[in-house]
Amino acid sequence: MARKFSDYPLHSIFSALSSKFGDSLDGPTHEAGDVVWDGSISPPPDGGSEAWLVVAGVTALNMASGGFIVSWGIFQTFYENHVLSSHSTSDIAWIGSIQYALGSLPCLLTGRLFDLGYSRLLIYIGSFMLVTSTFMTAISNTYSAFLFYQGVVFGLAASITYAPTLGVIPQWFKEKQSLAYAITSMGNPLGGILYSVMFAKMQPHLGFRGTMVTFSVVCFVLCLFAAATLKDRRSQAPIMTKVPKMFDLQGAMSSPAFWVYVAAIFTAYLGLLTPLMYITDQANSIGFPTSLGPYLVATVNTATIAGRLFCGTLAVEFGPLNLMIISTGCCMFFTYIWTFVPSIAGYAAVACLYGASMGGFFSLYCVPVAQMVPVDDVGRTIGLLLTLLSIAEMVGPPISGAIADHFSFHAAGLYAGTSIAVAVFILAWSKNQISNGTEVTLDMQHAPPSHRDHPEN
What we know:
Keywords: Membrane, Transmembrane, Transmembrane helix. GO terms for molecular function: transmembrane transporter activity. The relative contact order is 0.15. This protein has one domain: Growth Hormone, Chain: A (Up-down Bundle). The protein has about 450 residues and is mostly helical. α2 packs antiparallel against α7 (about 145-165) and α10 crosses α13. It is built from 18 helices and two strands. About 70% of the residues lie in helices and about 0% in strands.
């Protein structure tokens, strides 16, 4: 397929915006949700230079947004010891939790906007907000300012860019979809490593403000690369003229098995982020040098890369849900023992194993949902999942922080591990759900009857 520069988002920002809004105002009328193309989309190529450039662009955008978010552990410790030392652990954790949560909360809306063809506009707006919020965090000096710029604005920006990164992959990959999602999900830990190491190296010399300004420059470069490489294969987007049908629960979303799966991921998220957000705090309590905290965060993020690649590769052969159950079970085990390891070496080892297990979970949890629906409905369906998960992301870490403040990190670890244990049980149950006498599986070995043309593993 010939590639033209006009196919890419950067060819003309003003042309893209004027064309999009012009079509919305003057084009033929279609109800939102009634997908109409000027020609049908061809089957995913499952490879090739264009497809892998899209993967590279998605990875870069995930580094800019998700990488910053998963680096929260270094900010939690720094704020507690410096600029926000007068605030409690739980108060500070709300900044990270809101950032996590808003990275998912609006995804039902942004995912549907992606389905309706607004991918370029989402990338432009989200990228601008990512860079701006990072820069404004650099000049913040009050709790409310950090909460707004780093928590609210950056979180919203991440959600705006997240929908295109998830929705575009099924357009390019079918058999290798699990692997493609696993590779793009590596952007989060790669960005986490980059930001953590940069913070450790630069903050003592440039100070917090200089370091964060540098982060904003890095974010700008990554977003620019993503905008140049992300490409939507749909030849024409449907035109949104009526809002009511925008969020109709149809197809896979009407299946009880879908909601059981969502319940499992929701429950896992109540505890899954606890070790990641408090890993340096607990390390300091057993004698781990504070100056090495950012490197511990970077090491955990490195470990997630191995988990993402390993599970993503095996999921092509054995199915994503099977690997999800295994990786979530491992997360449960390491979360339970995380706070009870007395030695620094043992703690580092457990943290890395937890990171590898968590990497398998994060690389695959969207894949079963993406494979249940047609390619033109991926954004809305995954967006609904992420919107619901945002509630767990928002309340889970502060609950753990409150438990740690009033009892101990041991109690917080037990709470988090138990949440994940319940999720493992629900995931196993979701493999064979009986609804109205019909067996419904989320194993993805067999797609739902109405979507036989979509990937099987």
